[in-house]
Amino acid sequence: MTNKAHRVGDTNTAGAPVTDSLQTFFRDGGKLVAVDGSPVAPHTPFTTPHITTVTANGVSWFRINGIPANRTGDADSCGHARASSGAVINLNG
């Protein structure tokens, strides 16, 4: 399975995009790559924890500024998985 890096604008299974990244220099296709703790837009059912979601469960072996990078399939703090990505970088492992 190909696990592409997730970037600002890429969505989870609820359709909620990453809105920013905690790192400011590593990009894929011109977009910042998301790392654990990056904010995700509020999404259905618009209750806690879906209104304060951050990316989570990134890959421990690929870090940016010491923070695990996120990829397709990683579950956000609300439990929804990272879904769509137009990234070029594959983080398989």
Description:
This protein is mainly beta and 93 residues long. The chain has a single domain (1-82), classed as Tumour Suppressor Smad4, CATH 2.60.200. It has strands at 27-28, 31-32, 59-64, 67-69. The strands form 2 sheets. The chain has a two-stranded antiparallel ribbon with strand order 1-2. A hairpin with a 2-residue loop joins β1 and β2.
Please tag this protein with its features.
mainly beta; two-stranded antiparallel sheet; Tumour Suppressor Smad4; single chain; globular; 93 residues
Helical residue percent band: under 10%
Query: What is the N-to-C succession of helices and strands?
Result: EEEE
Rg computed from alpha carbons, rounded to a whole number of angstroms? 12 Å
Please tally the β strands and state the result. Answer: 4
Overall pLDDT = 95
CATH architecture: Sandwich
Q: Spans with pLDDT under 50 lasting ≥5 residues?
A: none
Order of strands across the main sheet:
1-2
Number of helices: 0
Main β-sheet description: 2 strands, antiparallel
Based on secondary structure, the structural category is mainly beta
CATH topology call: Tumour Suppressor Smad4
Work out the strand percent: 5-15%
**Termini separation:** 9 Å
CATH class: Mainly Beta
What is the number of independent domains? Answer: 1
* Large-scale geometry: globular
Q: Summed up, what is this model?
A:
The chain is mainly beta. The protein has one domain: Tumour Suppressor Smad4 (Sandwich). It is built from no helices and 4 strands.
